[in-house]
Amino acid sequence: MTIIRLDQRCSPLAMKAIATLPESNLHHCEYELRHPLGIYTNAIREICLAFNASLTALSTLEEEYNIDRKNSTFKSILKIHKDLLYRLREFIDDCYLVLQGISPVNGKYYPKTIFSNQYLSKIKFPGFKSFERKIAFYKNNYVGAIVNSIKHKHRKLRGIYFYGKDNAQIFIPGYYVEGVSKKGRLAPCRSVHQDENSAFSFNRDIKLHIWYFFLIDEALSDAINAAKTTWNIRENAQTENIEQFDLSNLLEKISALPHQFYDDEQLKPTVRIEQNDRGYELEYPYKKGIRALPENMGIISMPIVDMTVPSIALPYFKR
Fold first, then answer.
1. Which residues constitute the domain of residue 8?
2. What pTM did the predictor assign?
3. For the chain, how many structural domains are there in total?
4. Angle in degrees, 0-180, between the axes of helices 202-230 and 128-137, rounded to the nearest 10
């Protein structure tokens, strides 16, 4: 169990860690990079916009379904949610650039080492191994796997939703990354999903993404502070000029998403988001409060086929 503790504003921890770095310890201009605080501020702003856009699209889809059982905005939410996934993967790269921007130039590896993460590894940036270890699953097996599949393998996000046949209030939309099975059938991608009978409900997916966002922010803060200690950097006391982000409203919206997930997700942990006197707590893994689905459920999936597709293996359908 891991708990991330935030203040009442849910302010990103790394903002202060960057802002207290003296200008004399910044080297971003030598790398032709933007100021580290500018990189991180833009990254946070874009991610907040993407999260809110996805939540708004989800609310619109749910309202439409509740009114007349239609799903005409599903295509829109898939496009908007894909943008969120891209922003989150780019956020990791932005963190690398922040760390590079505070690293003295090492002529042995720069400029011939193109990728920032490889450069940081070669120069043995203080705390970098720990940073990579903390974000490894999310980067390699979750958001990174999804984004790389879309960008480099011509895979698509396809919509799916569960609905209650006897209870019109039950509506659980989500998506899966479409791949091709060993038999040539269109099916959930094996390099993203645990198997071909799996998908991501937005209810669980969005909670996990906000958890990993704050986990990465905390890991970045730890890496910067490790560099301050190793390089004997004396912090600036003044941080009044940094942009003050208040993510509490975003966290409230995400915490309100119901713990109602797909069949295979019922066995997986989710995220607890809770407010207390000091601020907010995010806990993962968390298994309490997950609602069991009623027996009489319907499933709608939205593949796109053509004459080259021999057959389809839709998730959660009997085969």
1. 2-153+201-252+273-287
2. 0.96
3. 1
4. 170
